[in-house]
Every structure is written in structure tokens, then in C-alpha cells.
Amino acid sequence: MKNQHTSHLIKILSLSTIALVLSACGSSSSESSSTTPETTTPETTTPETATLPNVLIGAVSATSGSSITINQRELPAASAEIEIDGENGSLSQLQVGMMVEAETNGTQVTEINYDSNFKGPILVENGTASIAGMILEEFDSTSVNNGDLVEVSGFNSAFNTLTVTYQQAITNSLTELEVEGVITQLDTQLRTFQLGNITINYQQAEVDGFISNGQFVEVEGVMQNQQLMASEVDAERQNDFDDNIDTELNGKITFINNNSTLMTISGQWQVSLTEQTRYEDGTVYDLAVGELVDVEALYQQQSDLFIAQEVDFESSSSNPTAINKAFSVAGVASFNEGIVTINNHQFTLNNQTVFDDGLTQATINGQFLELEGIITDDINIVSEIELMDANDSLSLTGYVITQSEQSTLWGYVSEDNSLSAYADQYAELECELVSGNQVRACRLDD
Questions:
Q1: Which residues contact 95 (CB under 8 A, 6 or more apart)?
Q2: Which domains does the chain have, with CATH numbers?
Q3: Which of 20, 143, 290, 437 has the largest CB neighbor count within 10 A?
Q4: Per DSSP, what are the bridge partners of residue 194?
Q5: SS3 of 189, please?
Q6: Distance of CA 400 to the CA centre of its chain
């Protein structure tokens, strides 16, 4: 299974700074004497030695026999070990646009790994290309037919969108394919599930982790009889960074919680925002889904979170093709087999869900909780769970549904009919809890 650093294709850089070479000459002076003139040696500063980051992940823009250019930085790589899809390779085999992971010893590249994001059958509908439900932006579909096998490399620009930087046709139908995405239509008896339009058969697969609808998985296998016969299904999605490693994450925000203390970058990296987090070219109030940011952070193994030190807002050249709607709900929760239920509405936990306030799956049943997350393919995927005081106002974000002249939001009804003002709309509301599923004074959440 592909390395987690590369598979989600977010540029990760050590915060080790590339030092500018400085040289300065001190002033010279001489004091005249009637006898021998005194000469002084000008003061100079010793140039600092440039230090490469420990890890760089980004697109190849050029190669030569002795160097590789990644993220517009030319790096010495004459003695680097090259691995391409798990096989030994050479610098000359690396192509422009491939997203690679390069490790360095501080002065030169020691190892380069390339793993494609997807190898699988393409689907083109209404001019939009996708693989396994993942929308492909900037994909050239002019010479591609539905069902053709292609290899793509790129970076996640939204929860379900990949911006393609490299693509290549696959001509060997027996090539081992690699796809990833969110499980739907899981059938545990037939041992099949869907990733977008692809049926995955995992009868003979090695399964790592717990699989359920809404769970993000990586799959390897071969196409046979219109199904991808999986040899491996990975649902663990564990990061393998060292503890406290300095990192830089570059990507688009795909989730931000109500109080702007947790965000997800490119559908993968969970970033904790604290009072100490600094902001460049914006403020905490500018954080929003779709914003392109650079995040300097420290990775914490225990929590599997990146603690943001600085967030730098970048101008975005284009908006994602699809942005998933966020949801927020609070109430007394029941929990069973990865599903939290509030007011008969189901919310799916996955391998990215962050548990706050010391909560675990073993302790959430019967608790009054606030859940926040993303609605995708009609599945409510939970990004964050935290305890909540039932006396506090409820943050309710979602679709207000009206049936028989009664408006409801996540099973709540308003005794003062205040929900009716948002009938059949997606709304971010704040309501006062009365009792049970009764609320009042629902208003837009500023």
C-alpha cells in the first residue's frame, strides 16, 4: 500500500529554513600617524550554509542526470535511490507533474518515492472526469473513453476533488490498480462496496482496519468482470510522521469547525488551531472551506493532529468543482457500530474523526454531544465530536426540511415556528433547546 505521505499528495515541508547566503563587509578605517600608517582588516561575516528540509513532497518540474526540481527548487540528487510504484527506478523515469516524496540529509536528496494517486477506470459524464467518485480537475479527457484505465497524480483540492498534475494511459489490463475513496453500499455478505461508480469485491482481500459506509479506504487490485477484485483494503489511514516534526501543509480547507479550532486540509490532514496560531495575509475569521492555505505546524503522534503555528492565506486561481456541505448537530447520542444517532438521524464516524474532551467510541453513548462534519453522497461524515452542555444554545447546520407544514432540522422542531423562516434551505442556525426535540428562537448563526 502506498506511503501515506505521498498517497494524499499534500506538500509537506520541514520548517527548516533555507538560509540566505549573507555576506557583509565591515567598514575599514585607518588612523594616520606621522610615522607608520595602520591598516585594519575589514570585518566579514561567514556565509551560512543552506540546509534542505528533511522531506519535500510536490510536483516534479524538471530532472537531469544529477538533479531534480520539486516545488520549483532544484535539488542535487546524483546518488538518490529512486522508487517508482514500489520498484527501483532512475531519475530519467520521473516525469514532469508526478507528485513525489523526496528525503534529504540536509544537503542532497537521498531517496525519492513516487506512487500514483489513482490507477483505475475513468468515468466521463457531462464533461467531468472522475475515478472512484473522485472528481478530476484539469484532466485531459479528449482522447479517453469511459472505462479506459489511466494513471493520475496530483493533489486534493477539496474533499472529493483531485487536481491532476500528471496523467498516463494504462495499456496493460492486468496492471495492479490503486484507488481510494469513501465507502458506500457496503454489503458484508457479498463482501462488496462502492467507491464512486466502481464496485469493489473484497472477498479475497487483506483488510486492514474497520470498514463501514462512510469510511475512507485505499484499495489495490485488478479489474475483472466489471469489478475491482481487491487484494488489499486499507482503512487504517495512519500517519507515519515522527512526533513533533516540523511540517508545512499546503492545500485547500475542506472542513472548518464552528469555533475555528479545527480544520481539515485537502480532505486529509487534521489541523488544530490555538490562541498561539499566527496568521499571514488574513485572520482567523477568514478561514473558510475552499481557501488555499500554507500551514506551518508541529505533528503530534498521540492525537494524530498538526498543531498550527502559522497559517498563511494564498490566492486561489480556481474554485473546486464540488464543495461538500458542512453540518453541525447537538443532542443526546446513541452509538452502535460506527454510527452515532441523534433524533433518529445517523452520523458516521470514520478514521479521521477527532474526539475532544477525552471522549472515545466507548464513552459517547448516552452523552449530550456536538457533532460537526461533512455531508457527502448523502452520508453525514463526522469530523469532530465534543461534549456539550445541554443548557447552551445549539448550533444546527444543515437542510431544513418541511413536511406537512412542519419544518425540521436534524429532527428538531420549533415550538415558536422559528424554523419555518428557513424552510427548504441549507442554513447555519443557532437555536435554544426547550426539551426533547423541541427548540425555539432559531436564528442565523453569526
A1: 60, 166, 168
A2: 177-234 (2.40.50.320), 246-314 (2.40.50.320), 325-387 (2.40.50.320), 394-444 (no CATH)
A3: 437
A4: 184, 199
A5: coil
A6: 29
Kindly write down the DSSP assignment for every residue of 1-40, as one continuous string.
---HHHHTT-EE------PPP---B--------SS-----
H or E element in which residue 315 lies: none
Under a CB-based contact definition with an 8 Å cutoff, are residues 219 and 120 in contact? no
C-alpha cell at 222: 485488478
Q: Is the pLDDT of residue 270 over 80?
A: yes
Instruction: Enter the pTM of the model.
Output: 0.69
Element (H, E) at 38: none
Q: What is the pLDDT of residue 238?
A: 63
Mean pLDDT of 183-193: 94
Name the most confidently modeled range: 67-71, 336-340, 431-435: 431-435
- Phi/psi for 420 (5° steps) reads -65, -25
Task: List 407's β-bridge partners, or say none.
Answer: 402
Q: How confident is the model at residue 294 (pLDDT cuts 50, 70, 90)?
A: confident
User: What's the chain's length in residues?
Assistant: 446
* Cα–Cα nearest to 203, from 178, 177, 224, 182: 224
375's grid cell = 455531508
- Average predicted confidence (pLDDT) for the chain: 83
**pLDDT per residue as tens digits for the range 344-353:** 999 988 878 8
Q: What H or E segment, with its residue span, contains residue 5?
A: helix 4-7
Yes or no: say if 207 and 219 are a contact pair by the CB < 8 Å rule: no
Query: 345 and 411 in contact (C-beta within 8 Å)?
Result: yes
**CA dihedral sign of residues 403, 405, 410, 412:** negative
Distance (Å, rounded) from C-alpha 169 to C-alpha 315?
32
* HEC sequence for 290-308: CCEEEEEEEEECCCCEEEE
Contact 330, 368 (CB under 8 A): yes
Buried b (16+ CB within 10 A) or exposed e, 397-427: bbebeeeeeebbbbebbbeeebbeebeeeeb
Q: pLDDT value at position 371?
A: 97
